[in-house]
Write a structure and sequence with these properties.
Elements: H1 6-28, H2 32-64, H3 88-93
């Protein structure tokens, strides 16, 4: 009898392996949820590692570039926005203010500390 071709023997081996795994399936069914979770976590970790590797390569590429203090020609900057500060007197006269000066009341010792 001539030997069977290699692809046919490989297909028979695959069928035998699938049959053995099908017989073990009821015993392994309990392990499947944990296997799925661990596989998902492993893939997530690999994706994070690849992302970090790409970011590190990008940093290496940027660090090779010569840096200057001059603004690049494509950059545009807005004029600075003036900062407004409110005086205590302004705050007390604005509507909706929660801090109010006491009326017709003698200031306490605590309030008069800074007046000396």
């Amino acid at each position: 009898m001539p030997p069977l071709p290699t692809p046919l023997r490989a297909a028979l081996g695959l069928a035998a392996t699938a049959l053995e795994e099908a017989r073990r399936l009821p015993d392994r069914a309990i392990e499947l949820p944990m296997l799925a979770v661990s596989t998902a976590l492993q893939m997530s970790l690999r994706a994070q590692q690849r992302y970090a590797h790409l970011a590190a390569r990008g940093d290496d590429l940027l660090n090779r570039r010569e840096t200057t203090d001059d603004a690049p020609p494509w950059a545009t900057f807005d004029d600075p926005v003036p900062v407004q500060t409110l005086d205590v007197a302004d705050r007390e006269t604005k509507p909706g203010s929660t801090v109010r000066r006491p009326r017709n009341v003698k200031p306490s010792a605590f309030d008069s500390i800074g007046d000396q």
